[in-house]
Amino acid sequence: MFTGLVEEKGTLRTRTPRGPGARITVGCTLAALELGESISVDGVCLTVDTVVPGGFEADCSHETLARTTLGSLPLGGHVNLERAVPLGGRMGGHIVSGHVDGEGVVASVRPAGDAFQVDFTAPHELSRYVAEKGSICINGVSLTVNSVAGDRFSVVLIPHTLHKTTLESLAAGTRVNLEVDVLARYVARLVEVGRADATGSSDASMIDTLKRAGFA
């Protein structure tokens, strides 16, 4: 599990095909890497298979390459890195699994004082999980949703985020990895089950509770 707080920016050194998947080499300065540990690479949970000088190697399945930007990122491109949070560690962002739900596209970038407001277009099937003032993970970065309109949503990137992550390079048309808030998924599932079982008074009560709380 991750929190969406990026530790450092790494570099995609190599991407070598292996059957339908590929092995990638990521350059970084993360200290004392251990074989088998999980690292979020631009929001994608990968397992350290080999520790190499100045970085590590990890395998990407065909599914990972097809559903995320790791299959198309140019060699030499920068990636956001975060090691898995230790038990009892500080939760500074939100709960992030590292399982990317799909790719979004930057619609626009415009200054907002010393920050930037960035508008994204999300896949239609993910839009219902994106809520104003809720959380979303973009390229491994935990962010707060500023506004939502249909399949579009916006976030504000403060100077610290721009400096510490690769999001400073976002431009219209850039594709990004999106992971919606897992809590939104569970709320949506509760609503679906409640609607499917119209005779269940407990489910109906749950729906009413979620509505009163603003989740449904």
The shape, in one word, is globular
Helix and strand content put the structural class at alpha+beta
Instruction: Give the CATH architecture of the largest domain.
Output: Beta Barrel
Number of strands: 14
SSE order, as H and E? EEEEEEHEEEHEEEEHEHH
Count of structural domains: 3
What Rg, in angstroms, do the CA atoms define?
A: 19 Å
Largest sheet: 7 strands, antiparallel
Quaternary state of this entry equals single chain
Indicate the low-confidence ranges by residue numbers: none
Relative helix content: 10-25%
CATH topology of the largest domain: Elongation Factor Tu (Ef-tu), domain 3
Strand content: 35-45%
Can you offer a commentary on this structure?
This protein is of the alpha+beta class. It has helices at residues 62-67, 124-127, 159-164, 182-196, 201-212; strands at residues 8-18, 21-27, 38-41, 44-47, 50-52, 55-60, 78-83, 102-112, 115-121, 135-138, 141-144, 147-149, 152-157, 175-180. The strands form two sheets. It has a seven-stranded antiparallel sheet. A seven-stranded antiparallel sheet has the order 11-10-14-8-9-13-12. The relative contact order is 0.16. It is globular and about 55 Å long. The longest helix is centred in the C-terminal third of the chain and has 15 residues, at 182-196. Helix 4 (182-196) crosses helix 5 (201-212). The mean pLDDT is 90. The protein has three domains: 8-83, Beta Barrel (Elongation Factor Tu (Ef-tu), domain 3); 102-180, Elongation Factor Tu (Ef-tu), domain 3 (Beta Barrel), CATH 2.40.30; 183-216, no CATH class.
